[in-house]
Structures are given as C-alpha cells and as structure tokens.
Design brief:
The strands form two sheets. A three-stranded antiparallel beta sheet has the order 3-4-5, with helices on one face. The chain is an alpha+beta fold. It has one domain. A hairpin with a 6-residue loop joins strand 4 and strand 5. The chain is globular. The mean pLDDT is 81.
Length: 54
C-alpha cells in the first residue's frame, strides 16, 4: 500500500480493495504503512474511521 493507493481508494470510495465506503478524507502513516479512510458517521467527533490497510 502506498500513499497514492490510499488516496485513490478514498477518491473512488472503495475500502480494502473491494468494500464500498463513502470516504470523506484519507490519511497515510508512512512509518507504520497504514491507510486510514474517514467517512460520515455518528461518533462523538462526527466521523467514522476505517483502518483500510496495515
């Protein structure tokens, strides 16, 4: 998983390579090589976080 692949996953609203996910934002942790996709939700901070890749 690269940072570009992480951002692309958010742009096309797909998580984990095939799961539909309404993505609003993405972050990529280069040290841990993890992609986090953020979508709308009802949690306290107003968003849901989905760890897409490890």
């Amino acid at each position: 998983m690269t940072e570009n692949e992480c951002i692309f996953s958010c742009m096309v609203n797909i998580a984990k390579g095939k799961q539909p996910f309404k993505c609003l934002s993405a972050t990529f942790d280069q040290i841990e090589n993890k992609c986090l996709l953020y979508g709308p939700g009802s949690s306290a901070d107003g968003s849901v976080r989905l760890k897409c890749f490890s």
